[in-house]
């Protein structure tokens, strides 16, 4: 099927057009001893109002192990997400992606024929963090890093973040590293695999089957829920129910 640009999309956003729409799936949170490794349910929505920018809304939920199935982390995003029952919001964020310049590829380099679009982003979350990001997007792949992170007096100490987003086999794959809680080096915090959904505003499905034996490189949800009990409402990046004490 031929790709068509979303209706009303500003020409400046054509390099970002593959992001537009709703995405749902699963992922993993982990940050040393602060955030025990756990499976999570995720949703991203990229939309626009005709202006030269995209709005990104991201929500991550912990999962209810009693209503979820274990999953194989090699499975497609929608299939894996359908195995999870969202429990509590861990974090939410709104960001704006704005292309600011385009660099033509080196004509002597056969491996880089796609132009590179330079990006600036701003983001905010309800746990008291705002950030300014810079980076690039080339084809179905983007990478950004924070240039400044501001926080309210009571927000968790986050000093630096980086993210990579890419389209792999039709799924939106993303990762985030961050430096927080006194850790100076960027350390893995979150990752996800999301599939495109036709109706982004439709509620997520609730798995009817009980938890089953994990497969592949799956994380057992019972174990993850036990490890994450008490931590699920304290997302270090911030969220609607985040707390820092």
From TrEMBL:
Domain (THAP4-like heme-binding): residue spans on this chain: 12-196
Disordered as annotated region, ranges: 195-245
Superkingdom, taxonomy of origin: Bacteria
Name of one Pfam family that matches: THAP4_heme-bd
Biased amino acid composition, Gly residues: 229-245
Signal peptide: none
UniProt-recorded name of the protein: FABP family protein
Lineage: Bacteria, Bacillati, Actinomycetota, Actinomycetes, Actinomycetales
């Amino acid at each position: 099927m031929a790709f068509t640009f979303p209706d009303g999309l500003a020409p400046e956003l054509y390099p970002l057009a593959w992001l537009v729409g709703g995405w749902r799936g699963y992922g993993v949170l982990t940050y040393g001893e602060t955030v025990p490794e756990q499976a999570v349910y995720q949703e991203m929505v990229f939309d626009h109002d005709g202006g030269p920018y995209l709005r990104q809304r991201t929500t991550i939920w912990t999962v209810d192990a009693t209503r979820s199935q274990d999953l194989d982390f090699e499975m497609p995003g929608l299939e894996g997400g359908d195995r999870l029952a969202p429990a509590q919001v861990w974090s939410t964020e709104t960001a704006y992606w704005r292309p600011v310049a385009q660099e033509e590829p080196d004509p002597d380099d056969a491996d880089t024929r796609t132009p590179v679009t330079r990006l600036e982003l701003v983001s905010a979350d309800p746990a008291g963090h705002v950030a300014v990001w810079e980076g690039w997007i080339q084809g179905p792949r983007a990478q950004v890093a924070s240039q400044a992170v501001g926080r309210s007096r009571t927000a968790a100490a986050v000093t630096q973040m980086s993210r990579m987003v890419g389209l792999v086999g039709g799924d939106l794959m993303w990762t985030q590293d961050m430096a927080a809680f006194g850790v100076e080096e960027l350390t893995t915090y979150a990752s996800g695999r999301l599939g495109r959904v036709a109706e982004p505003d439709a509620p997520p499905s609730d798995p009817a089957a009980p938890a089953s034996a994990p497969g592949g490189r799956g994380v057992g949800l019972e174990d993850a829920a036990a490890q994450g009990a008490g931590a699920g409402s304290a997302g270090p990046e911030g969220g609607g129910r985040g707390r820092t004490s």
